[in-house]
Design brief:
Elements: E1 5-14, H1 18-30, E2 38-43, E3 46-53, H2 56-67, E4 74-82, H3 83-89, E5 97-98, E6 103-107, E7 120-124, H4 136-147, E8 154-158, H5 164-171, E9 176-181, H6 184-196, E10 202-206, E11 218-224, H7 227-232, H8 234-239, E12 241-253, H9 257-264, E13 269-277, E14 280-287
Parallel strand pairs: 6-7, 8-9, 8-11, 9-10, 11-12
Antiparallel strand pairs: 1-3, 1-4, 2-3, 5-6, 12-14, 13-14
Helix pairs in contact: 4-5
């Protein structure tokens, strides 16, 4: 979390593609900057990323590195924030919204409208758009989870973020839910959301997919990750799926879809469905054996 006084480096990218946004995320991760320290937004085809850092010097250094990266057409600005501004920056304009046909998200702090029969109201605290259900990759994954409602009891959420997908899976019938994330802030945030929604059966572990070791397999594995991470961990993901059960992957820029399909075709996974939205893609696989 930022200190009491922090700084934001703001990038504005006109007509950026999903591949550009994914490239930005990979660049930030390579620099040791967690995505949870960023706020992403889009308006009138201009994408904006606010990256919160502890000192102005770090902002200047990152700005210089980005100028020499493969990202083109970026406009930069630096602003000083206090901690309360950082915590509230992502909240502007948020309102309740439907994640699926019967799961409605209420950002924490807003009044919750009681759910009708067969509907679910989820309270969600989140520090950024990614993982809140606002981003296309999260919405696509939620749709795949909804499609297979009633067909899974155990559920593994890789890159749990805010816990929204685990909470959604619970609504659709999952009984044994485990979420993992390499970022301790994401784990803490999910634990808060689990408590807010009174869902103590959801377990959360601070571990990356690369370091996650288990003898268990799961009926449904959801991996909402960057394409590069999915490609690198294809075999590990496949091993976590029970025979004849499901793997869903999301976080794939449309430009990277062909590469991912080709790579995953060399595994005991049968592609059942591909969803696309706003230049992003999600795929549902079934493990043959």
């Amino acid at each position: 979390m930022p200190s009491k006084i922090s700084y934001a480096l703001t990038l504005k990218m006109k007509e950026a593609s999903p591949a550009d946004l994914e490239l930005l995320q990979l660049f930030l991760l390579d620099q040791g900057i967690p995505i949870e320290s960023c706020v992403f937004s889009e308006k009138d085809q201009v994408h904006k990323a606010q990256i919160f850092l502890s000192t102005e010097r770090k902002c200047l250094d990152l700005k210089d590195q980005l100028k020499h990266s493969s990202l083109k057409g970026c406009l930069f600005s630096i602003k000083c924030f206090d901690q309360s501004e950082w915590q509230d920056a992502w909240k502007k304009g948020l309102k309740p919204f439907w994640l699926t046909e019967d799961v409605r998200i209420f950002p924490y702090g807003l009044d919750v409208i009681p759910a009708k029969q067969h509907e679910q109201a989820l309270i969600l605290e989140t520090g950024l758009a990614f993982g809140s259900g606002l981003h296309a990759t999260t919405r696509l994954m939620a749709q795949l989870i909804e499609m297979k409602r009633g067909h899974y009891e155990s559920f593994l959420d890789i890159g749990i973020g805010t816990g929204v997908l685990s909470l959604t899976a619970q609504h659709y019938g999952a009984k044994k839910i485990l979420g993992i994330d390499a970022n301790p802030e994401a784990v803490s945030m999910t634990q808060r959301n689990v408590a807010l929604n009174q869902s103590p059966t959801i377990q959360v572990k601070h571990v990356s997919i690369e370091n996650f070791k288990t003898q268990r397999t799961f009926d449904f594995v959801a991996a909402n990750l960057l394409t590069e991470v999915l490609l690198r961990n294809r075999d590990a993901l496949c091993d976590l799926v029970s025979p004849h059960q499901y793997l869903a992957v999301s976080g794939i820029a449309k430009e990277n879809l062909s590469e991912l399909k080709e790579h995953f075709a060399q595994s005991p996974l049968n592609c059942l469905r591909i969803l696309e939205d706003e230049g992003w893609a999600a795929l549902l696989y079934r493990k043959d054996a």
